[in-house]
Amino acid sequence: MQKLIPTKRNPQAPSAVIMIRPHHFYANPQTEGDNAFQRLASEPMKTADLTGGGNLSKQAYEQVTNAAKILTAHGIQVHIFEDETQDKPDSVFPNNWFSTHSGGHIAIYPMFAENRRKERRSDIIDMLKQKYRVQDVLDYSGLEHDGLYLEGTGAMVLDHIERVAYAVQSNRTNPLALERFCSHFNYEPMLFDAADEHGTAVYHTNVLMCIGTDFVMLGSDMVSDETRRNEIITRFEASGREVITLTPEQIAEFCGNALELQSAQQRLLAMSQRAYDALTSAQRDRLEKSVALVPLDVSAIETAGGSIRCMLAGIHLAARSI
User: Which end of the chain is more exposed for a tag (fewer CB within 10 A), N or C?
Assistant: First the structure.
């Protein structure tokens, strides 16, 4: 099937990402309480796995390595950083502590779990300043002292074209922090509640929806208020996007946790192999009208409650020429 070939920079789909390769990966005990997606491996973890020293950790290391190679082969610039520490189990998910924005802006976010606050790294910010045009860095991490949290593009799914920040209210997404971000970065906040069939609140918005250039994948049935649900769908349709509805079962398989990227030749949709397998053939056909689907095996990492979109911190900055 013929793919759309971009002719200019796309504000929605970055062409470069940052990934963190963990050397001691394990499911974070501090995030298990409000992350219904987080689970242990299919077989009981050994003690070594709980400290990042077992087979699960090795699998995570290899899966990040392979995912970076595949994305690079598809024309995406991947900046990979190593994490050799043992006290940052979720460092593989960098999109929660910082984001980048056109015009040369970087935001640094307040994190809910105390051990996740250690993930913020000055070397990553320094690299961005060196290789990309950075005008300013807005640091919201001080809001942690007031109990106000906003975990980056996990807490928010940003429509960079229409300038709307979609956000599920949770422990990880405080309305006041959201308003502050939106005021500074010129987004309209769209806050709403969402829960699974058991009534468990969705912890991060980016497991519920994926906004592409021409499409949106959305677990609309999980949006609690019908009026708000219809408003969200209407906004997406008014922007000219096709809304692809995901079932709660597909959301549980991380189908909403995908990220549109752009190479020099075409747009891509990075998603996990698990998510790809859970899509129907009709849904894949609809997506392939505008993107090439790139399934990636991140099954070990998904045991921590996040998938490929959480692993990719998109770079929306202009690259320096030298």
Answer: C
The pLDDT score that the predictor gives to residue 141 is 98
Report field, pTM of the whole predicted structure over 0.85 = yes
Residue 293, domain extent: 16-314
Buried-state track 250-281, b at ≥16 Cβ within 10 A, e below 16: bbbbbbbbbbbbbbeebbbbbbbbbbbebbee
CATH code of the domain containing 116: 3.75.10.10
In a domain, 106, yes or no: yes
Q: Is the residue at 1 inside a domain?
A: no
Strands 105-108 and 136-139: parallel
Query: How big is the chain by its Cα radius of gyration, in Å?
Result: 18
Total number of domains in the chain: 1
From CA 183, how far away is CA 279, in angstroms rounded? 36
Q: Is it the case that residue 36 has pLDDT exceeding 80?
A: no
Sheet (strand 164-168) strand order: 156-159, 164-168, 188-192
User: pLDDT value at position 42?
Assistant: 36
Q: What percent of the chain has pLDDT over 70?
A: 89
In a domain, 86, yes or no: yes
